[in-house]
């Protein structure tokens, strides 16, 4: 209908394609990095959230948690 705008539709289509490719890559990366898909560690070999990890040689059960130490050597997984 409007010949002066004919080039804009092609640019928008190319931008949409690039956005779709980026979204697909992001979704694929999220699937790889998703901690929900990982197996959880055995409870006997890890410290649960909000439990003391002071002096423990085992990691926190939650894969995203870390042993966090505060005042007077109080350490717990969070």
Rg, rounded, reads: 24 Å
CATH architecture field of the largest domain: Irregular
Shape: rod-shaped
Query: What oligomerization state is this entry in?
Result: single chain
Distance between the termini: 61 Å
Could you explain how this protein is built, in words?
The protein is mainly alpha-helical and about 80 residues long. Helix content is about 35%, strand content about 10%. It has one helix spanning about 5-35, and strands at about 65-70, 75. The N and C termini lie far apart (about 60 Å). The mean pLDDT is about 75.
Core attributes:
mainly alpha, 78 residues, disulfide bond, rod-shaped
Topology:
Elements: H1 6-33, E1 67-69, E2 75-77
Antiparallel strand pairs: 1-2
Summarize the structure.
This is Agouti related protein. By secondary structure, the chain is mainly α.
């Amino acid at each position: 209908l409007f010949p002066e705008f004919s080039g804009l539709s092609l640019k928008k289509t190319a931008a949409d394609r690039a956005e779709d490719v980026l979204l697909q890559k992001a979704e694929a990366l999220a699937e790889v990095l998703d901690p929900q898909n990982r197996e959880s560690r055995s409870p006997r070999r890890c410290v649960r959230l909000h439990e003391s990890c002071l002096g423990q040689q085992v990691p926190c059960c939650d894969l995203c948690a870390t042993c966090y130490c505060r005042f007077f050597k109080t350490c717990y997984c969070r």
